[in-house]
Each structure stands twice: as structure tokens, then as C-alpha cells.
Hints:
The structure holds 2 protein chains of 2 kinds.
Chain A: H1 8-15, H2 18-23, H3 32-39, H4 47-50, E1 53-55, E2 60-61, H5 74-91, E3 96-98, H6 116-121, E4 126-134, E5 140-148, E6 153-162, H7 167-183, E7 192-199, E8 206-213, E9 220-221, E10 229-234, E11 240-245, E12 252-257, E13 263-265, E14 272-278, E15 284-291, E16 294-301, E17 308-309, E18 317-322, E19 328-333, E20 340-345, E21 352-353, E22 360-366, E23 373-379, E24 381-387, E25 395-396, E26 403-408, E27 414-420, E28 427-433, E29 440-441, E30 447-453
Parallel strand pairs in A: 1-3, 1-4, 2-4
Antiparallel strand pairs in A: 4-5, 5-6, 7-8, 7-30, 8-9, 10-11, 11-12, 12-13, 14-15, 15-16, 16-17, 18-19, 19-20, 20-21, 22-23, 23-24, 24-25, 26-27, 27-28, 28-29
Chain B: H1 2-14, H2 52-59, E1 64-66, H3 76-91, E2 96-102, H4 109-129, E3 137-143, H5 154-160, E4 162-168
Parallel strand pairs in B: 2-3
Antiparallel strand pairs in B: 1-4, 2-4
Helix pairs in contact in B: 1-4, 3-4
Amino acid sequence: MKVRFAAMFASFLLAAPAVAQQQSPPPAPADTSAQDEGLSVTVTDESAWQNLQVAIPAFATDREQPTPANANGTTALGLELARVVYNDLKNNALFKPTGPDSLPRPAFAEITAPAFNIWRGRSAEDLVQGYVQAGADGRLTVGCYLYDVALGTELKRGGWVVDPADWRRAAHKCADLVYSRLSGESPFFDSKIAYIAETGPKGHRIKRLALMDSDGANHRFITSGQATALTPRYSPDYSKIMYLSYVAGSPSIYVYDIGTGSQRLLFRTTNETYAPRWSHDGRMVLFSMATGGNTEIYKMPAAGGRPIRLTDNPAIDIGGSFSPDGSQIVFESDRSGTQQCYVMNADGTNQHRISFFGGRCASPEWSPRGDLIAFTHIVGDFHIATMTPSGGNVRDLTRGWQDEGPTWSPNGRIVQFFRSQQGSGNSSIWQVDVTGRNERRLPTPVGASDPAWGPVLP
Amino acid sequence: MNRAAIVLAAASALALTACSKKPPAQLPPAPEQNAGPGEGQLPPSGVTPGTEEHFKQVMNGRDVIYFDTDKYNIDSDDAAALRQQAQYLLQYPNIHATIEGHCDERGTREYNLALGERRANAAKDYLVSLGVPVERLNTISYGKERPVALGSNEQAWAQNRRAVTIIVQ
């Protein structure tokens, strides 16, 4: 699983054909100060770069070699790598990328010395080139270079050494590099999503815990479906998943260890437990526990220990999402008579309602950037909406019949949620930008709900 | 205990107003009763007293109570049904019951788990107030995960907002 930020540039330069270096020495890492203004724009004014033409030709290889990552060797793998980068950028609709299937294939020597004239002729504004090499130990070295075609300069480069099984991660890292450099935003492609896979008719629906990469690849079912599974949450280090299961009859939260495949009860009790949440450092967890008809929110060490009750109210208090600095928690309560959103300090003090707009506020999730809270806005239909942490600037991002359960991309720019169809109740995972644009459905092999997006992988 | 008192008070307060709504015009279809392969075949003439099947037969629909949207109070119809359930449970002192709490699909998933638990406990507390020993009653919330009516309309939702009492041996 490890991606090593190797000191690979040295080795690449050694390995690169001498002729390339003579013709055009690899440019020094870009001095970003001068060209920054025109190229790096914040998303709030995305119109300037939304239509950037980015060419992504197939990655080159120094020599054709067999690799477990691709049955046809490293040349074919180079094409696949570029396709992953292309799809990442295309699916988020922020750029106008052109993929490797409609572009000439640069030679290995050109990776560090692009034929800018050719790319100018194709009206590419930016160019992503890369290479892949299979090492003697079987591991792959992937290099990624972003160029400004008009200026003929390198903007950014990155390199990663990965196990063959993790080849897609290198491509996601490259897409993240391009996205970050051109948008000025934090990366998010190299991340994973836990969710609930749904099959079967509405009256007998089977709900299984499942995992996938942020682009839907490497899909994997974790539970068999014999017991209903709901509301998963990845631990920040991706080693564990907390989720709700009916495996013992009544709903309880379990901590599933991805490495060992074993699981344990989060907290042993005869009461029902719901709504598991991790703190950002993974040390603390929140959960909600019902005692005789009254659900309250508790906090306890992730490793186990004594839960501390944070809420104390005859109403339903449930859920919870930490602010990025961990000092506050946004949660849901019907203490006012209907579901509304509240904020409290992490120790349970200073509980105050923040949602005072029309409709109800449910399943709030604090953005990793801290600037917004996403929630389910119940106005008859369910919409995904955002507001500031003080409850201002309410904005509906979606208009589905039933859109619920928001989860943030690691960079706080995209919200995923699940959409249920009226009648059939069939669910699928969708995402939308915080701008309300670029709504799209995620490809999943079967029905899907309760997406939970994890952080960017190290 | 407090909760039971509150529920009872709420029930009597609502007794005059809420009876027109419930039970829903069309009762949910009975779940399929598979006797299980090979064994447990009951004589066609009757069912064994104290079993879930017998309970359902005697209750004749009153093994289920229904709730208004987002509500968990016990209204007069519910109270009448729970009185019959309590009578049955007291008649067969060796049986235990599980009360399932359910919600309609028009609520968020986690909130509905808590709301289903609240509904199941409202029914349980009422049964306890009628003398059923608390040790014989168990609750489980299914939130909106197990609808019995499959439409997306008011009628279906009314059938799904329910607490179902099930006899366990």
C-alpha cells in the first residue's frame, strides 16, 4: 500500500536518455512566483480556468517490461495511467482535458523535453506528460510533469514509487498534482470511499458494507449482506471502518479492521448504538446511544474506554461532526420539536442551535476546510445544502426527490450524497461541487447509499 | 417511568383528536409465514397458543400500532391495541415479546433509527404500565430499513410508521 515519495528524480535523470538531456535539459522545478497569477485561480472564480485545455498523452516507458500491473507490459500501462488521469480531471468537469486515446504518444525522451510546437498546434494550454518504469524489485516508478504549453515551461512535477497493485494511486497522485497546481485547491483524487451497497427489492433490501477508490475502481464488498450494514465511516488512517450492523440482532456499532478482517463492538451495551464518527486525528470517536427511547451523543477513545455523554436532553440527539480543529461538534437534535442542527464545544458545553431557516436540518457534516457545513435540508423533498458554521448563507446544492447523507471530499470542494428514487427507493451515490455545479452520479456495481469519503492518502 | 407517564398523558390528550386517522385505510399485507422446511407443521385446525402465529391470529391486526409523522405518542387506537396485546402477554406468562420500531422513508436514515427506537419504547412502556413485566419485553429499531408498504405516498408511509409486537419463545 505504501507510496514512496522517492528521491526518484535523480534516478530518472540518470535513466533518461542522454540525448534528451543534451537537446533540452530537464527544466528546473518551476519557479511559481512569476506565472502564478494567471494560472492559479481560486474556485470561487472558476470561470477563468474552467475551460483550460489540458492534453494528457499516454505515459512513456523507458523500455517495455512485464509488470503485474498490466498483462501487456509497461507500454500498455503507460496508456492506462494517462487514462486514469484523464478521467479524474474530466469527471470533475473543471478542465477540458483531452485523453491519450486521441493524442500522439510522446517518446520517453520527450517526457522531460516536450515538443511544445506540436501541442501548441493542437491548442493545448497545458500538457501532462509522464513515464512509468518497472524496477528490478517489480515496483513501479511513475513520473508526472505538468507544462504550460504557451510559455513552454514546466509548472510542476511529481514522482512516486508504488507496488504494482497500487498503480492507479500513482495516476491519482498525478491528477491531484495537476488539479492542485491549476486550481489552487488541495488535492483529493487519491482517496477512498466507504459506502453501503444495496441490492434486492425495496421490501427485502440487502445492505452490505463496501469500499472503493474515489473514482469507483478497486471495488470490494466487506460484509456478506446477511446482516444489514449501515453508515460506515473510514478511520482517518484508512486502517479501520466503523459502521452499524444488525449482525447480533439489534443495531450496534462495530469497528472493522481492514488489515485483519476482524471486527469488534465499539462499546458493549444492551442499548442500541448508531451514528459512528471519528475525530480528525482518529483518537476519539462519537457515537449515539438510545436508552429507553432517548438517544444521546457520546464521546470515547477510539481504542476503547468509558464513554462520556455530551448531550443530555429528552429529545433525540444524534450524529455529530468535528470542526477541523477538533474544538467543536455540529450535530442534529429535535429538541425544538423538529430536526435542527446545533453546534457544541467538543466537551458538550455551549450547545446552541444554528439552523433558523425554512425546513429542517439533518445529518450535518463539517467541511474539512472548516468554512461550511453540509447537511440534509428537509423541505418536503430532501436537498443537499451548505451553510456557514453559524448557520448563514444557506444554499441548496441539489434538487432531488430525496438526497441525503452528505460527505465531503478531502479538500472540501465536493459533496457526495445518496439519492433515492421515489417509488422504487433505489439509491445511488452522487456528487456535486460546492458551487452547486457538476452534479454527477458515481459508477457503482449495484445500488449505493451512505457514502463516506476518507482523507487524501499520504 | 417518567416517559411512560408522559406517554400516557399524551395518549389521553390525543385520544379525542387522533382517532380518525388510524389505523390506515388499508392494512399492510401479512408477512409471509413460512412454517419452515419439514418441521413445525401445525395442525390445520388451529395454532398453538403462545406462538407468534397464534398471537397474530388473536390480535387480528392489533399486533401493530401506527404513528403520525415524526410522532411516537400512543393514541386511543394504539392504546386499545396495546391493551389487547398486554392481555395476551399476561395470559401466557412464559412468552417474551420483541417490539420493532419502524419509520417511513421520508426521514433521514440515522434520525429514523432513533425515532424507531423511540416508538418501540413508547409501545413497550405502555405495555409495562399495563402490568407486563419489563423483563419479558425487548425492543429493536429498524428505522426506515424495513418498510412493509412499498409505495412512496402518504398511504404507504402511514403503514410504515409502526411498532410491531412479535412473540418470541
